[in-house]
Amino acid sequence: MREIFSAFYGPTEDELKSAWKDATFVLDTNILLNLYRYPLVARKELLEVFKKLQHQLWIPFHVALEFQRNRLGVIAGQQRSFSEVKAALDSGVQTMTQKLSALQLTNRHSIIDAAPFLKEIESAVTAFKSRLDNLKGTDDVGLRDDIIRDQLDEIFKGRVGDPLASESLSKIQKEGELRFKCEMPPGYQDAEKEKRQGASFIYSGLQYEAKYGDLIVWRQLIEHAKAKGLKKVIFLTDDEKEDWWELVKVDGPKKVGPRPELREEIRREAGVEFFHMYNSEAFLRYAKKVLGAKVQQQSIDEVADVLQQNRITLKQEFPDLDSIEIEAAHRHVIQWLASLNIPVLELGNRLEYIDFGSGLITLNTEILFRIEALEYLVPAILKRIQKEHSAPVLLVLIGIGSSSRRAAQRWFSHSQNSAILRQGETVVYGEVIPQPSIPNDTKGSLVFTPFFAVGDLASVVMGSRRMRST
Question: Cα angle vertex 192, ends 188, 198, to 5°?
Answer without folding.
Answer: 115
